[in-house]
Amino acid sequence: PPPPPLPPSSSSPPPGSYFIGTKEDVVKARRVTRLLNGCRDVLVLYHQGQLHAMDKRCYHAGGELQFGDIEEFNGRLCMVCPWHKYKITLAEGEGLYQAVENPTIRPHRTQWRSKGVKQRIHKVTEVNGDVYVTLNDSAEAIESDNYQTERFRSVQQPR
Ligand code: FES
């Protein structure tokens, strides 16, 4: 019988992807920001053994997520925006919030809910010790797209 097909080669970066750096450097830096394709500000981060990539500017008002903390909420790892503490899941870009179950009952009991995907997440690939990002070019608008403008590239952390 013919030999089984080879698994997809991991020796070349995905077509259309962007080189970010060596994995060693990204792991050491933990957070790396890059302007990709001349128009997309992306944050690549390393956390608990995993690489993630997302739009750098928060979907709420353009906060710089490279300065946020990563915490777990309801079992999901989230970026916490440093500006107004919105929570964004690393894996999907969903906005999480705590909803009050029944406002008439005190003390209020809350549960975590999702607002849906708000932050554009990009794909990270490792090839031979190098890290590449493939931009998520889905045509569907995602709220974080609003902050991918020249105007916001120069907006800094409020003091
Ligand atoms: Fe991120 Fe407001 S800008 S929470």
UniProtKB/TrEMBL annotation:
Keywords: 2Fe-2S, Acetylation, Iron, Iron-sulfur, Metal-binding, Phosphoprotein, Repeat, Signal
GO molecular function, a single term: metal ion binding
Region spans: Disordered: 1-17
Signal listed as a keyword: yes
Coiled coil feature spans: none
Rieske domain: residues covered: 18-133
Source organism superkingdom: Eukaryota
Ranges of Pro residues composition bias in the record: 1-16
Protein name in UniProt: Rieske domain-containing protein
Organism name: Gouania willdenowi
Encoding gene, per UniProt annotation: LOC114469424
